[in-house]
Design a protein that fits this description.
Elements (H helix, E strand, L loop, with lengths): L2 E5 L3 H12 L3 E6 L6 H5 L8 E2 L18 H6 L2 H10 L4 E4 L3 E4 L4 H14 L3 E4 L3 E6 L5 E6 L3 E4 L2 E4 L14 H8 L8 E3 L3 E3 L3 H4 L4 E12 L9 E12 L3 E3 L1 H6 L14 E7 L6 H14 L18 H8 L12 H12 L1 E8 L7 E3 L20 E3 L13 H19 L1
Parallel strand pairs: 1-2, 1-10, 2-6, 10-19
Antiparallel strand pairs: 3-5, 4-5, 7-8, 8-9, 11-18, 12-15, 12-17, 13-14, 13-16, 14-15, 16-17
Length: 423
């Protein structure tokens, strides 16, 4: 019987262990934490967005980095198969807006307990609080053994690295797998936080701290440090929800847009970014102008600062008044057409200058990782070390929010486990 080691008991690790065991291997999981699935536990605000129920062909548009590499993995074990696995093992699921799939209970712990139950049934040996220090390889480039703190040297025919990236380091994601990959001669691409809030320059954002906006549109404009202005471009355009914070902006729209944030171009020239926020995307500028004229007509004897209750949340009114440049005490019937049209433009294009990303402790995922050029996409096996496999966030692939990243973990874990057991 083939002996397979899995390093990491998160989403990819548990799926890899299940897949390898079902394929006939004897599987041992090494987990440095005291319990499994610490990151699963906090995903989806503790509800766990298991996967996304859209057609699997639509996934590739949601994966900014590494979509082609994932073709075999995603089609080999798709979202329907993941949902069936949980349903058939007693964890009922539901599909919400945006095709996001959650456990009916809204408890991520039910996802973890279902996976652990399957692992126990398959007699997978899980060694908690047993941190792997390094992976031994033979002279001819084949995996030989795993060296861990408690178990010492244990020989295996195959090893699957499922240690995650660098996001949420409190869950144990501290880059161990990236270190192993480097030590074994693999290229590791630059790692940065992704699906993470933005810090912005404008102080007025702090005044709006805690305010959530629904049904708004943002565009993320990328501006090169040098070169012609025509090289400016919108790298993201989305509709949905966002949130103001003490440091800038967050929420689903912002997190997704951060997938498209590149620090610099290939020459190392830094980009700058501007967020363009449309507070009324359902209306054209002309329609919005007519709406504002109606509001002003209904409040013609009021001061400007007291005429905007139907347009904005109350917390936002003082900020919009200040940014408009219109005297707050001015009666609306005295506001000029020029002032009104400039106000319309402000509402349709509220600009915020991005000063940077928040750090790994606030990032949902890591961008970057073990280079896909060093991994066989049909098996998840290393092209450099025989018997060494990678799955999940440790690989240089990442996707938008909505369950896509967990599906990548399930799919790559399944393929790695199956390949490790059979190859």
């Amino acid at each position: 019987m083939k002996q397979v080691a899995v390093i990491g008991c998160g989403a990819a690790g548990m799926m890899a262990a299940i897949s390898a065991s079902l394929s006939g291997a004897a599987v041992t999981i090494f987990e440095k934490n005291e319990k499994p699935g610490k990151k699963i536990y906090i995903t989806g605000k503790g509800r766990c967005n298991v996967t996304n129920a859209c057609d699997i062909s639509e996934y590739f548009d949601k994966i900014p980095h590494g979509s082609k590499f994932l073709y075999s993995a995603l089609y080999g074990y798709d979202n329907t198969q993941v949902m069936n696995l949980f349903e058939e093992n007693g964890c009922r699921l539901k599909t919400e807006r945006g095709d996001r799939v959650f456990p009916v209970s809204d408890h991520s712990s039910d996802i973890i307990s279902t996976l652990v139950r399957i692992l126990k049934k398959l007699k997978v040996d899980i060694r908690y609080q047993d941190e792997v220090r390094w992976i031994q390889v033979t002279d001819y480039g084949h995996v030989k053994a795993v060296v861990s703190e408690d178990s010492g040297i244990t020989e295996f025919d195959a090893v699957i690295i499922c240690t995650g990236g660098l996001s949420y380091p409190s869950t144990g994601s501290t880059g161990d797998g990236l270190k192993f990959a480097r030590e074994l001669g693999h290229k590791v691409t630059k790692t940065t936080p992704s699906l993470v809030p933005f810090e912005v320059a404008q102080n007025w954002c702090k005044e709006l701290q805690g305010l959530a906006l629904k049904n708004v549109t943002i565009k993320l404009e990328q501006i090169p440090a040098s070169g012609p202005a025509k090289k400016k471009k919108y790298v993201y355009d989305g509709f949905g929800e966002m949130l103001f914070t003490h440091f800038g902006v967050s929420g689903p729209l912002i997190l997704t847009s951060s997938c498209y944030y590149e620090e610099a171009d290939k020459k190392g020239e830094k980009y700058s970014y501007v967020i363009h926020l449309d507070l009324k995307p359902a209306l054209t500028e002309e329609q919005l102008d007519k709406r504002i004229q109606r509001e002003f007509e209904n409040a013609k004897n009021r001061q400007f600062k007291n005429s905007l209750n139907a347009l904005f949340p109350s917390k936002m009114i003082p900020v919009m008044v200040e940014l408009s440049g219109i005297d707050p005490e001015k009666q609306v019937n005295a506001i000029t057409k020029k002032e009104r049209l400039e106000f319309v433009s402000l509402i349709k294009n509220l600009k915020m200058d991005v000063t940077g990303l928040r750090g790994f402790p606030e990032a949902i995922i890591t961008r970057g990782g073990v280079a896909t050029s060093d991994i066989n996409p049909s098996t998840m096996e290393s092209k450099k070390i025989k018997g060494l496999y990678f799955a999940g966030e440790v690989i240089d692939v990442d996707a938008q929010t909505g369950g896509f990243n967990l599906q990548i973990a399930w799919s790559t874990g399944h393929l790695a486990g199956e390949s490790a057991a059979n190859d």
